[in-house]
Amino acid sequence: MSQETSTAARPNLREEQKRRTRLALLAAARRLFVERGYASVTVDDITREVGCSRATFYLHFTNKMDVLARISAETMEKRAAAVYRDLDEVLRSGSRPAFTEWVEATLGWFSTNRDILPAWDEALKTEPDFRPVGRESITALTDAMPDYLARWPADRRDEARFRVELLVTQLDRYFTRSTVQGTIEFAPDRAAEILTDIWFPALRPPGATPE
Questions:
Q1: Angle of helix 64-74 versus helix 131-143 axis, rounded to 10
Q2: Residue 19 and residue 92: Cα distance in Å, rounded?
Q3: Which bin fits 81, alpha (ψ -120 to 50), beta or left (φ > 0)?
Q4: Cα 128 from Cα 123, distance rounded (Å)
Q5: CA separation (Å) from 43 to 30, 61, 192?
Q6: Which of 33, 79, 127, 141 could in theory staple to 84 by disulfide, Cβ–Cβ 3.0 to 4.6 A?
Q7: What burial class does residue 2 get, using C-beta atoms within 10 Å of its C-beta: 0-12 exposed, 13-18 middle, 19+ buried?
Q8: From CA 181, how far away is CA 164, in angstroms rounded?
Q9: Percent of the chain having pLDDT more than 70?
Q10: How far apart (Å, rounded) are the C-alpha atoms in residues 47 and 57?
Q11: pLDDT digit string, tens, across residues 133-164
């Protein structure tokens, strides 16, 4: 191997090592947040789990709040924004059965990611500086629905966003109470139908053709 080739390869090896370290930090933080909750985990706990220094942690993340935000953005199999991008397509189609299927799939998404959701809620309660991150995560969902927003009059688009935010909230709370807490008992397949009864008409823009 020539010296030129060897020199060119070194940065790639360093970048790969940085990538692996970042992934290891994300995996360790997620595991600790799930096992112990957000508040009780420290940066030292995360670095100890990986076997790296605090300086290495801060090369990748600003603080503990940042690593939690990046877990959501970088490790979920399907990002929340993609879920609502799918909703934009469903609403464009005007298909009620497709909306019911979307509700079922979204409850499945909550189930897949249920282990990290309590840490997110805990961070919002205990870290005032995390609230803008939480707000941005909600805004990203409606930003993923440009067709839906465009079909509302300009002076009512804040209302259109608010309706989606209420949908997000109800699905979150329903999932938490039914699946995590067990305080709501109802057949899941029927629940999707009833949620469709509520939300399919509520999300139709003014002047849309009735069902």
A1: 20
A2: 39
A3: alpha
A4: 8
A5: 12, 10, 40
A6: 141
A7: exposed
A8: 24
A9: 92
A10: 7
A11: 999 999 999 999 999 999 999 999 999 999 99
Angle at which helix 188-202 crosses helix 157-175, to 10 degrees, equals 170
Coil, helix or strand at residue 196? helix
- Fill in the amino acid letter for 35: E
Q: What is the mean pLDDT of residues 76-85?
A: 86
Q: Rounded to whole angstroms, how far apart are CA atoms 22 and 60? A: 6
Q: How far apart are CA 200 and CA 170, in angstroms?
A: 14
- How far is the C-alpha of 139 from the C-alpha of 163, rounded, in Å? 12
Alpha helices in the chain (DSSP H): 3-36, 43-50, 54-60, 64-74, 80-93, 96-112, 117-126, 131-143, 146-150, 157-175, 188-202
Nearest C-alpha neighbor of 61 from the set 43, 76, 37, 80: 43
**Token code pair at residue 177:** 């109470």
Task: Please state, in angstroms and as integers, the Cα–Cα distance from residue 10 to each residue in 4, 15, 76, 102, 179, following that order.
Answer: 10, 9, 31, 46, 49
Tokens of 168: 């997000």
| Under 8 Å between Cβ of 2 and 15 | no
Length of the chain: 211
Q: Name 138's Cβ contacts closer than 8 Å, sequence gap at least 6.
A: 165, 168
Model-level pTM? 0.83
